[in-house]
Every structure is written in C-alpha cells, then in structure tokens.
Specification:
This protein is mainly alpha-helical. Helix content is 64%, strand content 8%. It has 6 helices and 3 strands. InterPro entries: HTH_MarR-typ, MarR/SlyA-like, WH-like_DNA-bd_sf, WH_DNA-bd_sf.
Length: 157
C-alpha cells in the first residue's frame, strides 16, 4: 500500500527548491574554479584535504571513504587519478592485507596548498560574503540540523 505524503506548502516548496538548486549549482562552480586554477575537481580537493588534516601520515581507504562520504569504488577511481599525478601514494596495509593505505605525497601537499587560496576566495565570493553574520549563524545551525539527520539515516537500501 502506498503511503500518502502531504504536499509541500509554498514555504516548504521554496526552501526545498532553493536547496536543490544550490546543491546543483555550488559543486559545479567549485569544480570550475579548482579545475581552472589547479586541475583538481572539488572531490579531489576534499580527498587531499582529508589526507592533509589526518592526524596520521596514512589513512585506510575505508576511513578516507567515510571521511569524504564516498563509496569505495568512487574513491578508488579518484585515488587512481591522484596517484597517476603523483599527489598520493597507495600501499597495502601492513596490519590487514585486505586493506589499502593512502598517503599524501609532498607534491600532493604542495598542490593542495597552492589550490587553497583560490578555493577560499571562491567560497567567500559565492557564499560567505553574500550573507550577513546572522545569516551565517543560521546557515551553520540549519546545516548542522540537516547533517545530523542525514548521518542518522540507515545506509541499507
């Protein structure tokens, strides 16, 4: 039996359509800037950033996939591209032969550091500078609420 779901009112619809438009437009804009300035996609930038911020010099692929909210196949494909460019290195995990470790190379660190100023400038131009301090506080609160709910969703289909 199909469950009946109430229709969205005008306020709910406007909020939802605004969010979905942002979810489409913002990643594309971030990709354009990063590709133009450093040849990275936004997801590659996120992968390199997570490795840079890791307290250990290496991360297991499974931990990196969780940190970047990616599937292992997607992450493996992206890591293959980053490895070919010399930005990361992958190696078998000594503690678990089934696992793979990933490490940011010196070249990867340099590329990430080079790409950060342009990325921050783009984020400021497109998002941060468009909002008042009160709106930024509201956005942070809203995103925290949504992300908490998303994190608690079951991952099984």
């Amino acid at each position: 039996m199909k469950q009946r779901v109430p229709r969205m009112n005008d306020q709910e619809s406007a909020a939802w359509l605004g969010l979905t438009a942002t979810l489409q437009l913002l990643p594309a804009a971030l990709d354009r800037q990063l590709q133009r300035d450093s040849g990275l996609t936004h997801f590659e930038f996120v992968v390199l950033s997570r490795l840079q911020l890791s307290p250990e010099p290496t991360m297991r692929m499974t931990a990196l996939a969780e940190a970047t909210v990616a599937t292992l196949p997607r992450l493996s494909h992206v890591c293959g591209r980053l490895e070919k460019r010399g930005l990361i290195e992958r190696s078998p995990c000594p503690e678990d032969r089934r696992a793979t470790n990933v490490r940011l190379t010196s070249e990867g660190r340099r590329e990430l550091i080079h790409s950060v100023p342009g990325h921050i400038a783009t984020v400021r131009r497109l998002v941060i500078d468009a909002l008042t301090p009160e709106q930024l506080d509201a956005l942070a609160e809203i995103m925290g609420t949504i992300n908490t709910r998303l994190a608690s969703e079951p991952t099984d289909p």
